[in-house]
Specification:
The complex is a heterodimer of chains A (259) and B (256). By secondary structure, chain A is mainly alpha-helical. Chain A has helices spanning 2-21, 53-89, 94-106, 109-120, 124-150, 154-161, 166-202, 214-221, 230-257. Chain A has a single domain, classed as MetI-like (MetI-like fold, Orthogonal Bundle). In chain A, helix 2 (53-89) runs parallel beside helix 5 (124-150), helix 5 packs antiparallel against helix 7 and helix 8 packs antiparallel against helix 9. Chain B contains 10 helices and 10 strands. Chain B has helices at 40-47, 68-74, 99-109, 116-125, 142-154, 172-186, 199-205, 223-227, 232-240, 242-255; strands at residues 2-11, 14-24, 29-34, 56-63, 66-67, 82-85, 160-164, 191-196, 208-213, 216-221. Classes of the chains: A mainly alpha (259), B alpha/beta (256).
Amino acid sequence: MKQRRFIISGLAIFVVMYALTSMVDPFATNVTNRLASPSLHHLLGTDHLGRDVLSRLLLAGGITVGLSTVIILITATVGIILGTISGFVYRKLERIVTKVTDATIIFPDTVLAIVLAGVLGPSIQSLVLAISLIKWTSYTRLVHTLVLQESTKGHVLAARVNGLSKPKIALRHVLPAVCPHILVVMSLDLGKVILLISAFSFIGLGVQLPLPEWGGMISEGRHYLATNPALVFWPAFCIVLTIIGSTRLSTKLTRHFQV
Amino acid sequence: MLVIDQLSIKHDERPLLQDVSFAIERNEWVCLVGASGSGKSLLVKSILQMLPNTLQTTGTIYWNDQEIGDASKTCSIYGCEIGYIPQHYTTSFAPFLTMDEHIRDLFESHDEAYDKDRIRSAMAEIHLSEELLNRYPLELSGGQLQRFCLLLASILQPTLIIADEITNALDVLTARQVTEWLKSMIGQTSSMLWVTHDLAEAMTYADHILVMKDGRIVDAGNREHLIASENPYTKSLLQAAPILKREERLEHVITR
């Protein structure tokens, strides 16, 4: 098992290092070398414009995973702040926050995100905003519920009786207990958001050309599915691999935090 | 100092506490005695403003002539003026904070400078070694956690300490030791509201004993008053306490 892990990690590091050191520009087109088969210079071949597939895959990976991370951080932060305030620090806000999250949750989130992205116009900013706008509600509800559960625990009540202020109790007693749950959900959501970003790029509402993105690469490559299926296979493989990775990460976090 | 005036608590029209009135004076040790479900802990929770919103409360609690709701809003009386020792001491500490962090938080919350010497001497008094400060609650025994509860409740020298059935789960010797520790820690400067099932314990330490039954105070007075009481519930409590039974018998023989 250890040996297999070592070989896979070694191969992954080699591929990344090779792509980085070979200095292939992911944007450089070469129509004379379009749809080329894998070679030493282009390890995974070239696309329909003669661009290096491997370097575009790696750059797309950075963009997709980076954007997902940013979106999850934004939505989780909003959820943590609103959930904690409405559930513990200032309970008068509870009704408003609950009503708003309930109202948003009625709509199917993917459809709502597509509508929002369509209204805002296709760009990275619109993509981040649209997905963040549909995702914050689930984090707020989750944090709100967890905070309500935590606030009845003995140590929270003891802290109140010892005269600690509500914000201090939230920071010192409630959030440290809630955070492991949120981290697990965040790691699971990473895969979901990656899939959503790819879907948006696939339909042309996400990352715009010439920037590479896995969903966008599949969209471009599908025209050559019969002649050059690798153009679709590699980005799809990367998406699947990352989602499996995020699921495994969440399993590990669940075990680690015992939640 | 603490005055409870006509306090009644209901849940869906079902009375849980009815017309409870009493006062605790400075340096007075008051014991609240009664069977499980008599409303002792509910009374403590209402003093600590920890009642859930679903309960309907009437009556007033005064702390130093100020309504306790207003007093707790204007300054944090809890932890500083009123110390509380909980019944469930094992769950009273956050598992991810060290004991030192718990104590620091208490000091910081009341704008008090963290006084290491004061903590050290208080710890020595209740047989806690200084190295335990850096430990997490899960690394401590039940007895050590309970002593830390005593420490937290008394370290800022509050004028009233409320102890909620803290000797319930302890053997007789340890219970006696804990009570003696508490007595020495609060000294002559604090009052005490001691909630207990054990009438013998109440008789030993209290200046004033309140007997609760079904949400009411059915009898009140000092040791002598209770021994001579004609109240049937107090009588039954006295008969159930074997030590008192013997003492009562002795007194009876002496007076004859």
